[in-house]
Write a structure and sequence with these properties.
Layout: H1 2-74, H2 78-83, H3 90-99, E1 105-110, E2 114-118, H4 130-151, E3 161-167, E4 170-178, E5 192-198, H5 201-210, E6 214-219, E7 228-232, E8 241-246, H6 250-299, H7 309-326, E9 329-338, H8 340-347, H9 349-365, E10 372-377, E11 380-388, H10 391-406, E12 409-411, E13 414-416, E14 419-427, H11 434-450, E15 456-458, H12 462-482, E16 487-495, E17 501-512, E18 516-518, H13 520-529, H14 533-548, E19 555-559, H15 562-566, H16 570-581, E20 588-592, H17 595-598, H18 601-613, E21 617-623, H19 629-635, E22 640-643, H20 645-649, H21 656-670, E23 674-677, H22 683-692, E24 696-697, H23 708-728
Parallel strand pairs: 14-15, 17-19, 19-20, 20-21, 21-22, 22-23, 23-24
Antiparallel strand pairs: 1-2, 1-5, 3-4, 4-5, 6-8, 7-8, 9-11, 9-14, 10-11, 12-13, 16-17, 16-24, 17-18
Helix pairs in contact: 1-6, 8-9, 12-13, 14-16
Length: about 725
């Protein structure tokens, strides 16, 4: 059990920690990912902003150069060049070159596409630089020509176009101006003035400083990874020039600020996760303990500590499976304590609980470790005896149980003695499934109780019929009582000479629709056990009183069950029946057995006094079969005693039974009681009883139990015979 609980605890904790751990890890990953993404995004935004700001500064520098050159061009008189036939002369070109000495080169393109390059300061333009400069200027000219053709610029002195270009390691501002007023044809050579001005390193450095660029450098090589650059195009076929610098990275600063907080947060998260894990460990441990305790409580009887019915059934299922492999049988024993109710009533429920615990200890002491002992509730116990070779092993255990429970128990400083009734069912002889075995053991237990208690009974197939009868009685008898489905017969009681009917005993019969006529011996005891005897007895009494009104002067005898008589409202129910039927109480005779007064003599005496006050006669039935009848005759005011039929069955004129009958008759007569003998079947018995002085006789010699209609005819014949005798006299 402990190992199973540990494994369950570990599995439950694992199932709880995995989701929790994944949740914590996902949360941390989301936080760190968000931080990284945010800082990277901040870096990207800063770099884009710095590049855009630097590019805008370059544009402003180029614009400033353009404005400067444009002011100079405005005072040159370019219209003179335009009026010269055949294009500008060499002198005009020289004039322009001299006027633009702040420029590095001037290119004039004139029809028929004569291109000349003039250099203002040859010291600033080496010979190897001339082709590259020319290429830059030609590129500017080509851009200007495209501008003219695409946008249709026809006015001389149109807007001066400026571009930033690169050659080798230098930056130049290339300017182009259309000098031709007419539209340029596709095959015509336009008149374009191209100018070139180099940006000084100071201008570039100032520009970088103005934008706060760190590590600024101008290079023809692609910048290293991590640097930001602006690419400046060169002449066709030439590499571009890169303006690179170390970018601003505010995300790094953010990360540096967040690292301590992140470390602290991570530590707090780890502590929180540890706390959660510890809490889950405690919760799961307590849950496992609680579940284990609950399972134990579910499978245990709280009073005795034994297995209960549920655990017993589970264990029996397992033992039956093992029985199939071992080849050895098992026995199921159901045990009921005898006289347990007396202990509860006499000494209280605490004493009863203590008795249950002591019984559990004694039973456990005689069982093997592999056997199972359970308590179903109340005074009901059950045992699974496994691995038995034959029925004798189960019988031997039952005898040991009876022997150990017979010894007195010490309870509340008092010696208490109880017995037990045991029912036994065997597997595989009787059944091989749990439900059937338990049902058969219960059937055998009922049989043991019926046979006198403090004994054991092995299940036999005939017991099933008894159980079915009990079930049928319980289900159908109630309906028969409610729906008037019973039958009442009457056995006449004659005077000792056998000539006159002096009384009639009412006997109930049950004409069952499928079982036929069922005698009282088959259903009265079951009716008493199932609580149906009260409505059954009242039905018999009412019907007997209703029928008895048909026979004036005849006393009607009705048998009363001990359970019925002890009921607190018995006298009231008799009174109610007499009033509702208007039957004369003096003609009613209630036959009581010795068991009526054995259990509670005081209550019985009070009820009998009340009944006699109503005028009802009382008879002690089956007299002579009990051990204390003489005591009751002295204490209770009976009107009649009835000699039990068992004395007549074996009676001989000089036998022991005859002596007993003789004593009973003389005792009754001495006490002034009417003496009636039951079971008279022969003339010899009649003559013997009559000679003894018996007052009334009843038996098959005179009449068997008959219906009310037959009794009508019998009384009618008797009355006719009496009338005939009277007439003769």
């Amino acid at each position: 059990m402990a190992g199973g609980s540990f494994n369950f605890h570990r599995a439950l904790l694992s199932r709880l920690l995995w989701p929790t751990g994944i949740l914590f890890a996902s949360t941390l990953w989301l936080v760190f990912s968000t931080m990284l993404w945010t800082t990277d995004r901040a870096n990207e935004v800063a770099i884009q902003h710095q590049r855009a700001r630097f590019s805008a500064s370059l544009d402003r520098l180029v614009e400033r150069v353009r404005l400067e050159i444009g002011q100079t061009l405005g005072s040159t008189g370019l219209e003179v060049l335009m009026r010269q036939p055949g294009g500008p002369s060499a002198g005009a070109f020289e004039l322009l070159s001299n006027r633009f000495r702040q420029l590095d080169a001037v290119l004039l393109v004139a029809p028929p596409f004569a291109v000349r390059v003039g250099v203002a300061d040859h010291a600033r333009l080496t010979a190897d630089r001339v082709p590259k400069i020319r290429a830059l200027l030609e590129d500017s000219v080509a851009e200007a020509v495209r501008s003219v053709r695409l946008r249709g610029e026809r006015e001389a002195g149109a807007e001066l176009k400026a571009r930033l270009l690169a050659a080798d390691d230098d930056l130049y501002v290339a300017l182009a101006l259309n000098l031709q007023a007419d539209e340029v044809a596709e095959d015509a050579s336009p008149l374009v003035l191209a100018l070139l001005r180099k940006l000084t390193p100071t201008e570039i450095a100032d520009l970088a400083a103005l934008n706060g660029l760190t590590g600024f450098a101008v290079s023809r090589d692609a910048p290293d990874e991590g640097l930001v650059s602006v690419q400046i195009a060169g002449p066709p076929g030439e590499p571009a020039l890169y303006l690179a610098w170390q970018p601003e990275r505010p995300g790094e600063a953010i990360r540096e600020d967040l690292v301590p907080a992140s470390v602290i947060g991570f530590c707090l998260a780890a502590l929180l996760f540890g706390a959660v894990a510890f809490y889950l460990h405690r919760v799961t441990r307590d849950l496992v303990r609680s579940q284990t305790r609950s399972q134990e409580l579910v499978g245990r009887d709280p009073l005795s500590g034994l297995a209960n019915r549920l655990a017993f059934g589970e264990r029996l299922d397992g033992d039956l499976v093992e029985m199939g492999t071992s080849g050895r049988g098992l026995a199921v024993l159901f045990i009921d304590l005898d006289r347990f109710k007396d202990v509860n009533d006499t000494y209280g429920h605490q004493a009863g609980d203590e008795l249950i615990r002591l019984v559990a200890q004694r039973l456990g002491s005689i069982l093997r470790p592999e056997d199972t002992l359970a308590r179903f509730g109340g005074d009901e116990f059950a045992i699974i005896q496994v691995g038995i070779p034959n029925v004798r092993a189960a019988e031997s255990l039952a005898r040991r149980i009876l022997d150990t429970l017979t010894h007195p128990f010490e309870i509340a400083h008092t010696q208490v003695t109880v017995g037990a009734s045991i029912g036994i069912a065997l597997a595989p002889e009787n059944a091989i499934d749990r439900e059937t075995l338990m049902r058969l053991a219960d059937t055998a237990l009922y049989q043991a109780k019926s046979e006198g208690r403090n004994r054991f009974s092995l299940f036999q197939s005939r017991m099933d019929e008894t159980i079915r009868m009990r079930k049928m009685v319980e289900d159908d008898l109630r309906d028969a009582i409610q729906n008037d489905g019973l039958l009442l017969q009457y056995q006449p009681v004659y005077s000792a000479d056998g000539e006159r009917i002096v009384a009639a005993e009412a006997l109930v019969r049950w004409p069952h629709p499928t079982k036929g006529l069922i005698s009282p011996g088959q259903f009265i005891a079951i009716a008493e056990e199932r609580g149906l005897i009260i409505p059954l007895g009242e039905w018999v009494l009412r019907r007997a009183c209703e029928d008895g009104k048909r026979w004036p002067g005849l006393r009607i005898a009705v048998n009363v069950s001990a359970i019925q008589f002890r009921h607190r409202s018995f006298v009231e129910s008799v009174t109610r029946v007499l009033e509702s039927t208007n039957f004369d109480p003096g003609r009613l005779e209630l036959e009581l057995t010795e068991g009526v007064v054995v259990d509670d003599a005081d209550a019985a005496e009070a009820a009998m006094v009340d009944l006699r006050a109503l005028g009802i006669h009382l008879a002690l039935d089956d007299f002579g079969t009990g051990y204390s009848s003489l005591i009751y005759l002295r204490r209770f005011a009976f009107d009649k005693i009835k000699i039990d039929r068992s004395f007549l069955e074996s009676m001989e004129a000089t036998g022991e039974s005859a002596i007993l009958v003789h004593s009973i008759v003389h005792l009754g007569r001495a006490l002034g009681l009417t003496v009636t003998a039951e079971g008279v079947e022969t003339r010899e018995q009649q003559r013997f009883l009559q000679a003894l002085g018996c007052h009334q006789l009843q038996g098959y010699l005179f009449s068997k139990p008959i219906s009310a209609a037959d009794l009508d005819r019998l009384i009618a014949r008797q009355n006719a015979a009496d009338a005939s005798v009277t007439n003769v006299a």
